[in-house]
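Async update (no meeting this week)

Hi team, since we skipped the sync, here's where things stand on the single-chain job. The sequence we agreed to prioritize is pasted below, unchanged from the tracker. I ran it this morning and attached the output directly underneath so nobody has to dig for it. Comments welcome in thread, and please keep replies under the output.
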Amino acid sequence: MSVNMLRSHSSPDLFLHEHINQVFTAMQGIFSWHSESLITSEIREICQKLSCCHDLGKGSSAFQEYIADPERFLEENDPLDKSHTPLSFFLTISKAEQEKRDSLETLLLCACIYGHHGGLPLLPPRCGQSGKQKTLDQFAAGRMYKILCTQIENTDYAALEKETDVPLTGLSSDKKMFLKISRFLKNHLFSSLRKLSVDDAVIFRLKTQLSFSILLEADKAFLAVKNSDLYLKRDPRFWQSQWIDLFIGNPEDTEVNRLRQKAKKAVQESIANNRQDFIQSLTAPTGLGKTLLAADWALRNRELSIAEVHYPPKIIVVMPFLSIIDQTSGVYKKLLEFGTDKPDGSWFLTSHSLSDREYSPEMEDNEAGFFIDTWRTELIITTYDQFLMSLVDPKARYQMRFHNLCDSLIIMDEVQSLPCHMWQLLNTVFKYLADTCNTKILLMSATLPPFVKDARPLLENYKDYFIFRRYKFIFKHGGSQNINDFCEKIGKRLINWLEIGERVLITLNTRKSAGMVFDYLQKLWPEEYQDIKAFFISADVTPKDRLKKIEEIKKGRPCIVVSTQCIEAGVDIDMSLIIRDFAPWDSLVQIAGRCNREGERGEFLTVEIADLSDDKGKRYSEMIYDIIHLNVTRHIIGDRDTISEHETLAFSEEYFDRLNSAKDTGKKHLERFAYWEEDVSIHELLRGDKMQHTFLVIEQDRELLNKMKQIKDIEDRWKRRDAWRKLAGRIASISVSIFARYGFKPEEIASNQMGQWILHDGYYDSESGLKIDSIYADKNNVSIIF
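Output:
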C-alpha cells in the first residue's frame, strides 16, 4: 500500500522529509563553525532529535490542507486550526513518557519544539505566585484542546513516520492521555528542573538555549538563503593585532601616551601568560585608551586560537549608549582599512536601532537580512539591550543569536552602568557561559563594580595607572540649590567663559532642568560672541541632531554644552570646565572623564558638583536615581570639599563595596532565569518601568512618511516586515523619547500613523529639542514630563 507524502512548505514547495534534511544539514554547518568542546556528542544527538521532531505537527490533515491552498483554508477555517507546534509537542512528550526517557532531556526537547515559532516557554508559577505569560503546561488550554483532539484523530501517522523516521505507533490520543501528560509534566519534567541547584539549573538553561538557538537558525536557513553553498561556506576572516600598532603610529611623547604604551605592553603580557582566564576585567582611568586595549585583547586572542580552531572566535563589543557605538565603530573600521580594501558584513556589523541593514551589495535582501539577524560576521558592535536579550530573553528572535555568544570574545564596556539588581544574574550566567560555552569575557570601566567575582584583572597593577591629575571635584555642600538661583549664578559667569574661550559642559539630571539652563543662557548670550556655539544634548534631541552636535564639539573650539547624563560615559570630548548636578559616584567619575581628557590643559581643572532642586524643593537627583546610590555617594564623600582624580579609585571601590551590601543585587532575577519563571523585560531591568513615549520628527525626513505608506500597502506580510526592518534605522535617527507621568496625552502633539506618533510641526527645534514643557503641567504647575 502506498503512503502519502506530507508537505512542509508551499513557498518554496518542500516535502517534510526535505525540510528535515535541510535543517540537519544547516545544523551541521553551524556545528563546524564552533569548537568540539561546545558541540559535544550530546548536543549533536539533541539537535538531530529536534530536527526530526520539531515539525511533527505538520502531519495533521488541517496543516496539509492549509499548505495545499493557504488562501482558501484561511477563508474557510480558523487560523488556529493549522497550528503545528502544540501537536509536535504532544507527540514528542507522549513518546518520551511512553519510553520513560530522561526528564531533563525531555524538557529540553519539548520546550524547544513547542517554542520554536515564538520563544522558550516558561514553567507555571509556583504556589503563591502569579503570572501573565503562557506556560508549557498550557499547551492544550482553551480552544486548543479541541483542536488538538481533532488533529490527533486526523493525522496520517504512517506518512508522518516515513517523512520523519520517528516511530509513532502505540501512542494514545484519548482524554486520559492529556491528563497523563499534564501529570508527567508536573511530576517529572518540572520537578526535575526545580530540584537542581541554581548553578546546575543555569547550566541546563544555557544548554537548552544553545540547542534552541541552533534549531532556530537551521529551521530558517535554507528558506532564507536559497543557495545552500552560500549558507554553508563561511570563509574565516583573519584580523591582525599588528593593525593596532599601525593605527596608533608614532604618538607624541606625553604623560598620557607613555601611560597608554605601558598599559598596552602589560595587556599583551597578561594575554600571553593567562590564556586560561576566561573572564577578565580592565579597570583603567578615563582616557587611557580602553577601546584599543580591548581591541588588542580580542585580536591577540583570535590569533592565539587559530592553531586550535578552524574559525577564529567572533568578537562581540557591547556598549550602553548609541552615542559611543558610533565612535567605537569608527575605530574598528579604521583598523580594518589596514587589512582589507572592501570589508563587507562578513567582516563587521553593527546591531542596534540606528544601524543600517547592509551586508553585501551582491546579496539579495532576504539573504542579507538573514545573515544580519543571525550575526553572520566576525565582529558585532551592539547595545546592552540587544546583547542581554540574546543572552537571557526567551523570545525566538533573540535566542536565534545565542549560539554566537558561545566560543566568542565578548567585550563589555562601561559596565558600571548595569543596575545592581542584575549583578547576581550576570555573575552566574557569565561564569557558566565561560565554563561551559568556551566564551571569553572582558569587562571594562573606569569604576568597575565587583559583580563578577571570578574576573581576573587584565592590568594586574591597575592601581598604578590612577595617577593622573587632570581634574579635581569641588563639592558644593550646604543643602540643595534652587534651579533658578543656579541659572542666575552661571549666567553671571557666562561672559568670563566666552572671553577666555572656555569649553564648558553643564550636565543636569532631567531634560526639564537642562532645558531651563540652556534657555536661560541663550537669552543672555551677547551678540558679539555669536561665533562661539552653545549646544543642547538630551534624549529629546533626535539622534541625527545629537550625533551632529557631538561631532562639532569634538572639533575642540570654545563652546558651552548643556546636556543630560546621556553624554557622560564614553563620549570622546575634551572640556576645560564641567559643572554637574549631584548624582551617584560612578556617574560623577564618568562625567569627570570628559574634563582635560588628554591632560594638556594643566593640572586639577575643575569639576563642580552642585545639588539642584526645583521650585518645590525636590532634588532633581532624587527624581532620577535610586536613593541608596545617592546616600552611599554622600557617605563616601563625607565633608570633603575636594577630591582629586588620583584619589577616585579608592572612593570607587568603597562605593561599590557599600552598594553590594546595601542593595538588592538580584537574587530573584537569577532564580527566575534558572528555573524558567516569568520576569520583567530586559528593557525594564535596565531602565525601570516609567512610561515612555516616542515621536518621529518627520520634518527632518519628509520623504520617510511616503516610504512608510508604500510599505503599508505591501500585501505579502514577510516582504512588508523586511521593508519595515530595513527602514528601522532611518526611523530611529529622527525619533525622540520622553518619560511622562500619568495625564500626558501624546495625541495632543502628534498624530498616530502606521503605528508611529508623528510629531506636529512646531513642537521640535534642532537646537533645544522637544518644546512641550510649557504645555504640560499638573495643577501644582509641575511638569509631567521628566
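Quick observations from my side:
The mean pLDDT is 89.
The chain has four domains: 7-232, 242-465, 471-640, 690-770.
Reply here if anything looks off.
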